[in-house]
Design goal:
By secondary structure, this protein is α/β, with parallel strands linked by helices. 31% of the residues lie in helices and 16% in strands. Strand 2 and strand 3 form a beta hairpin.
Amino acid sequence: MRSTRVMIGLSAAAAMVVAGCGTTEEAGGDQPAAGGGDPITIVDSRGQEVTLDGPAQRVAATEWNGVEHLVSLDVMPVGVADIEGYSKWVSAVPLDDTPTEIGTRGEPSIDTLGSLNLDLVVATDSLNEGAIEQIEAMVPVIVIEGGNGEDPIGSMFASLDMVAEATGKQDEAEQLRTDFDAKIAEGAATVEELGATGEPIAFSDAYADAGSVSIRPFVEGALVVSVFEELGLENAWTMEGDASHGLAQADVEGLTELGDVRFWYIANDVLGDPYTDELAGNAIWQSLPFVQDDKVYRFPDGLWMFGGPLSMMQYVDAAVDALEA
C-alpha cells in the first residue's frame, strides 16, 4: 500500500543547509510499495505532521544516523546515501547488499528516489535547500535532527522513536533504549572500578591538507562527549562548538591548553591518521604532556560519531578499553 498524504502542522519548516553534489545509480522501481495497517501520523522535527497509510516498509534514508536507526530496528532501507562511505564509518549496524545508492548525503538523487516506489524517506535537517520539497512531491518525508547540542542523547532517541513509529517498530526501539541504559550503567561501574571517575578526556578527529593539520575537538554538546560524561568522565575541551553537533576547530598549538589529560581520537585508514603521520615529528605535538605520558589512544575504525544507540554503545566499550590500555 502506498503512503499518500503529507499534512502540514503548525510549526514552520526548518531551513535546510548543507551543500553537496549527487550521484545516481540505475534502479528498478516496478515493485509495489509495501505497507498495511491503520494510518499513522508522525510529528517530525520540523513540527510537521506526516500521515502514512500504515507502517512504512520501503524506506530510504539520506543521512547515516537515519540509516543506522532503520537497520537497528530491523528495517533494511531500500535506498541509502553514500553506501561506500557508510560501510567504512558505521560498523555497528552493517548493510546487506540490497540497498540502492541514492547519491550524496547532502544532495540525494531525486530521480533515483522517485524510481524506488518508496513508502517513506527519512531525511535530516542538513539537506540542501529545496531538496525536502522536491522529495515530498513524490513520497512522504519525515525529518529527524542531524544533531542537537542542547540534548544530544535525547535527540538521538527522539529520532529513533520517530523512525520506529513510522515503521511499526516501537518494541525494537524500546529494547534499544533498555540495552543502551544497561551498557551505560555497566560502563560507568567499570570506570569507577578503574578509579577513573572524573578523569578529564579530550576527544577529537583531525584532517590533513597539504601538510597542515586541522583538529576538530568534540566539545560540550557532542553526542560522543555526552556518552563519556554519562560514564563519569569529564570533557577537557573548554571552547564552544556548533549548536548541532558540538564541534569546534583547533590546531596543534591549541592543544597546549589541554594540560595533563587522556587524549582520545577517531581516525580512519581511508583518510589516514594525521596524529601519527603529519604530527609524528612535530615539536609541539611531541612536547604535549599526554603525548609524553603515553595517554594518546586511537579508537577503532568504524565507530560513527553521530550515530544511534548501537554506535554509542560501541563508544562505551571503546572508552573502557582506552582506560584499561
